[in-house]
Amino acid sequence: MKKKNQDLRTGIIALIVVIVLIFIVGIIINRPEPIIIQGEADASEIRISGKIPGRIKEFKGEEGSQVKAGDTLVIIDSPELTAKLEQANAAENAAAAQDRKANKGARKEMIFGAYEMYQKALVGVDISKKSFDRVQHLFDKGVVTAQKRDEAEAQFKAAVATSNAAKSQYDMAINGAEKEDKEAAMALVSRAKGAVNEVKSYIKETTLTSPINGEITEIYPKCGELVGTGAPIMSIVDLNNMWFTFNIREDLLGQLKMGKTFKVKVPALNNQIVNVKVDYIKALASYATWKATKTTGQFDVKTFEVHARPIAKVADLRPGMTALFAETVK
User: Fold this and answer.
1) What is d(CA 181, CA 175) in angstroms, rounded to the nearest whole number?
2) Sign of CA dihedral 20, 25, 29, 33
3) Sheet containing 207-209: which strands, arranged edge to edge?
4) pLDDT, tens only, 184-237
């Protein structure tokens, strides 16, 4: 009887152990499966290009060089702009000369000549006035005919008209060009200066500078090659403005909301763990949508682009480095 009781206890313990093992195995089997989601590091990148066509004369940096905002990167040679600047300067000088002439007025000799003609006309008026007065007096006494009187009056009026004309010529010589002529000359000067400034602004574009602090990642043309307007010449990456990009199916987004913080692992940095924060979520185009193959039980699943920015600067982090984090499927 004692032996039977002992065997019974042993069997019960064995059964309990088996049940516990089955329970543990069931928990392990039914535990949510983590999925490793892979992304990569990205950085803000700027392409340097010029407004004018020309030939690459010199590069002031090379791929991998560190540059600061305002540093000269490229010098472009454009002989056509130099020729246009010479033409614009010549046009400005001609317009300035025309403006000076309009404002200066007539030469001293012309003013003196106009004054002498005016004085001569005044003398003629005085003489013709006296002659007319004498003829008029004689006409009143009946000594001369009406025709003689009319002739004297006509000569007097002609002398007055000549005097007025001479006075106008003299005034014109003193006052110089008309107001409209001066304004037209000034407008020509302004237009010529605008043309010069325009060419100078384009000449400034022959020297391209860096708009940011960063690193030259790629140079496209070679020294001596021709580049067109707006053609990219080099790329600069801002290593101080970096983030991680993940393309995640919407059914795997889980708790990844705007402002959510989580941890990612960077294999290239000895599996360094980096704390990041979500600051961008956007659905990708239809080409990235997973299409359901069954009419029931499935639905189309979109893919979202998620940006997560490191909370603190990560040393030696480079664009293109892989980032991993685990998302649990429920």
Assistant:
1) 12
2) positive
3) 207-209, 72-77, 54-59, 226-227
4) 666 777 777 777 787 777 788 888 999 999 999 999 999 989 888 888 999 999
Residues 6 or more apart whose CB falls under 8 angstroms from that of 128 comprise 152, 155, 156, 158, 159, 160
Q: Write out the DSSP string of 167-188.
A: HHHHHHHHH-S-HHHHHHHHHH
Give the three-state DSSP class for 155.
helix
Nearest partner of 217 among 200, 239, 198, judged by Cα:
239
Does the predicted TM-score (pTM) go above 0.90? no
CA-based radius of gyration for the chain: 48
β-sheet bridge partners, residue 322:
40
Give the separation between CA 84 and CA 52, rounded to whole angstroms: 13
Written in H, E and C, the secondary structure of 85-102 is: HHHHHHHHHHHHHHHHHH
DSSP 142: T
Q: What's the N-to-C CA distance of the chain in angstroms?
A: 52
**Neighbouring-strand partners of residue 215:** 66, 237
Q: Please, are residues 214 and 67 in contact by the beta-carbon 8 Å criterion?
A: yes
In whole angstroms, give the CA distance from residue 300 to residue 6: 62
109-118 residue pLDDT tens: 666 676 677 6
Cβ distance 100 to 76 under 8 Å? no
Taking CA atoms, 85 is separated from 52, 55, 76, 228, in Å, by 14, 18, 16, 20
Which phi-psi region, left, alpha or beta, contains residue 176 (left: φ > 0; alpha: ψ -120 to 50)?
left
